[in-house]
Amino acid sequence: MTVSDNSRSSWEDAVKWLKSQPNKEDLVKACFYDDPLLGAAERFYNSSEWNALKEYLPAAGHVLDIGSGRGISAYAFAKDGWQVHALEPDRSNLVGAGAIKKLADESQLSIKVNQTWGEKLPFADSTFDLVYGRAVLHHANDLKQLCKEASRVLKSKGMFIFTREHVISKQEDLNAFLENHPLHNLYGGENAYLLKEYKNAILESGMNLRFVLNPMQSNINLYPNTKKDIKKKLANRLKIYSSIIPDSLLFFYGALSNAPGRLYSFVGQKK
Questions:
Q1: The model's pTM
Q2: 147 and which of 27, 60, 161, 201 could share a cystine (Cβ 3.0–4.6 Å)?
Q3: Does residue 2 have a pLDDT over 70?
Q4: What is the CATH number of domain 5-270?
């Protein structure tokens, strides 16, 4: 299905379309768009992605979940004892603030919802111990401004984690990525940046980078696959045992990737 620029669907309508396609069930589940929402959120909480993310999390405190979507990450943080503010400008009951409120009610977890954009945060300076965003930076209207705001509301030495961000090697790759994205032609909201653009925006905001995780380096980026799955595929191709493939080979493999829209994650700390 394709649409013209003048007849773009909303994000909610694009997801509704995706959910209606019988051959897209695996993708719907991989994106946690399946119902019931509470079941999808619990599956995220038990996923290889969340378990990998927890390796980088500080002790539970106050977290701002920017671009929270349906609230699956907010749910996971709240379940692990964090004080959660979920920021989501879309009011949708399917993929936006309405869905987060419903999830909080059904789970009886405390999640405060703010329906606004990340470029202008309604919080005082030095409010949060952690600012987190799952696939949010590449949707920014102003990447540098969003990073500046994230830094502003972080406490001194507070951490930020931005995961699953689409990366391109050169500007000419952007169209190839957008043309192959399953929903961009419907709602027109996808994007990708050069790796250096993400890094510069983060560093210029007053945050230091501790880890830049490439596409094969962590289960955060690989979900719904895992490093174990990738090793098995490589082992079958090379006709060797997967147990002898080191993580360093995956790191090298990921660093060499130039696939348009490949996923990177960023972990750092405010100065």
A1: 0.95
A2: 201
A3: no
A4: 3.40.50.150
